[in-house]
Amino acid sequence: MEQPAEHPDPPLLLHPEIDDRPPGEPAGRLPPDRTQAILEAAKRIGSLLKARGHPFALAGGVAAYAHGAVVRLQHDADFCIRREDADAVTRTLREAGLQVFLPPEDWLIKARCLGQDVDLILELAKRPVTSELLDRAEVLPVDSVHMPVLAATDMVSSLLAAFSEHHCDFGAVLAVVRPLREKIDWRRVRAERGDAPMAAAFLYLLERLQVIEPDSVELSAEPAEGADSADSAEPADSAEPAEPEEARR
């Protein structure tokens, strides 16, 4: 019986549906690990958006990496864009040969780049991405590519907002906030997220670990507006000092 012809395995591509490698990069060459693969995808997306002048900011785990946190990237690269820019950004990515598609969620757009998932976020922590949020972004290097990165306070506030009964990984977020604690406006984080039970529990954990000062210490650090200092105020009716006994004699 004639045996079917054996065919060699096809060359390994970064993504089976589309070869979206930059020009000149050899086929079958993958980054050494998942973290580096996601970084490479973030760099390419950031470069494309910068080249077309689209307002954006890097978010999520790659943003934490750019700020200096030690993270293991396992899922995707996240970018914040305004909803009014979604069509233009989608067109830019598709013109570059990338796959872009709409998931069931109406608050983000998904793309594939160098075999990795990319989320283009239109609402961060259930709030629309605004020009003010993007204006607060800090330009930081992601490996060799500089790009706007969410401010540390905005990034941490969004991480706390993601806590829920179904997702509450304090350990992963602790690894992010501990090295960045000096860059974060904790008073603003408390004001934005302190009423949520999971976020409040995490802030209490940071206090017990002495990562941040307790809320009462932060509030007492500044005197209340309009309050007079007890040390500087002088009593209205100042008593005359007592005359020494020797002088009375």
How would you state the average pLDDT, rounded? 81
What is the beta-strand fraction? 5-15%
Low-confidence stretches are 1-19, 21-27
Main sheet record: 5 strands, mixed
Classify the helix fraction into a percent range: 25-40%
Number of DSSP helical runs = 10
Strand-pairing-aware structural class: alpha+beta
Question: How big is the Rg?
Answer: 27 Å
Q: How many beta-strand runs?
A: 9
Strand order, sheet with most strands: 1-2-5-4-3
Q: What separation lies between the terminal Cα atoms?
A: 137 Å
Shape: globular
Helix and strand pattern: HEHEHEEEEEHEEHHHHHH
Task: List the main descriptive attributes of the protein structure presented here.
single chain, 249 residues, alpha+beta, 15% strand, globular
Helix-strand layout with pairing:
Layout: H1 34-52, E1 57-59, H2 60-67, E2 76-80, H3 86-95, E3 99-101, E4 108-113, E5 116-121, E6 123-124, E7 127-128, H4 131-135, E8 138-142, E9 145-149, H5 152-161, H6 170-180, H7 186-193, H8 197-208, H9 215-221, H10 245-248
Parallel strand pairs: 2-5
Antiparallel strand pairs: 1-2, 3-4, 4-5, 6-7, 8-9
Helix pairs in contact: 5-6, 5-7
Could you write a compact summary of the structure shown?
38% of the residues lie in helices and 15% in strands. The chain is α+β, with helices and mostly antiparallel strands and 249 residues long.
Care to describe what's here?
The chain has 249 residues and is an alpha+beta fold. Helix content is 38%, strand content 15%. The strands form three sheets. It has a five-stranded mixed sheet. β3 and β4 form a beta hairpin. α5 runs antiparallel to α6. It is globular and about 55 Å long. The N terminus is likely disordered.
